[in-house]
Write a structure and sequence with these properties.
The protein is an all-alpha fold. 71% of the residues lie in helices and 3% in strands. It has a two-stranded antiparallel ribbon with strand order 1-2. It is elongated, with a radius of gyration of 29 Å.
Length: 227
């Protein structure tokens, strides 16, 4: 009986938490939408919105605001203004969400820029937001360069391995390949077939892979492995 009571209490707690979470998001949505104002481009958000949001939202709303700002919620821009209205309480969460790719880098930088320009935040907080924005920009520039370098390296590797693979068709050129280069060709061929050396294979696939290894790596089979 006691265990049953504990289980029921736990279920009630989960249900209450879920309902509260839904109500919390709905409340934040209503607050955000109520602070829209007519501007040159229609209804949107401005400095007046920031002041209103700063009085109606609290730091406890930051997780909900991050959730709304990090997905196609229809009020992502409003969520950014909501985050900015919380000044120092939002800086680290916004930075961390961006680093973890839960928030678009440009959206995070825009939010930090809003904080740095919002007179409702203290000078210290505004300075901290500017520094966080600069740090994020640097981090994403470095990440962008790393991705570009990795893509270039992969393209260079693919080109080199493909050229070496063609050498296998010529017995004389094949002799110039090292064992490492032959293994690269072999592993790339397996990957193209959707196979792995230590992965599941049918008996026929195992025979084919064995023939490929003996042909490409050991040079024992002189005819192509698919013949």
């Amino acid at each position: 009986m006691k265990l049953r009571s504990v289980a029921i209490a736990s279920l009630v707690l989960v249900a209450v938490s879920f309902t509260w979470g839904q109500r919390s998001e709905a409340r934040v949505r209503r607050i955000i939408l109520s602070t829209q104002h007519l501007g040159a481009h229609g209804m949107g958000y401005n400095t007046r919105s920031l002041w209103q949001l700063s009085k109606r939202l609290t730091p406890d709303d930051v997780p909900v605001l991050l959730s709304l700002g990090g997905r196609n919620s229809g009020i992502a821009v409003g969520a950014q203004f909501g985050l900015a209205s919380q000044c120092g309480s939002a800086i680290v969460p916004v930075r961390d969400a961006a680093v973890q790719h839960k928030l678009m880098s440009l959206d995070a930088e825009d939010t930090l820029l809003l904080i740095s320009e919002f007179e409702g935040c203290s000078p210290e907080v505004r300075s901290e937001a500017s520094a966080a924005k600069a740090e994020l920009h640097r981090l994403f520039e470095e990440e962008h360069q790393r991705i570009q370098q990795e893509a270039k390296q992969k393209a260079d590797d693919d080109s080199r391995i493909q050229a070496n693979g063609l050498k296998l068709l010529d017995p004389e050129k094949a002799k110039t390949l090292t064992r490492e280069e032959r293994l690269e060709i072999y592993h790339r061929s397996l990957a193209a077939m959707g196979l792995k050396e230590d992965g599941p294979m049918t008996p026929d696939q195992k025979k084919l892979v064995d023939r490929m290894y003996r042909s490409m790596v050991l040079g024992e089979v002189k005819t192509p492995p698919n013949e």
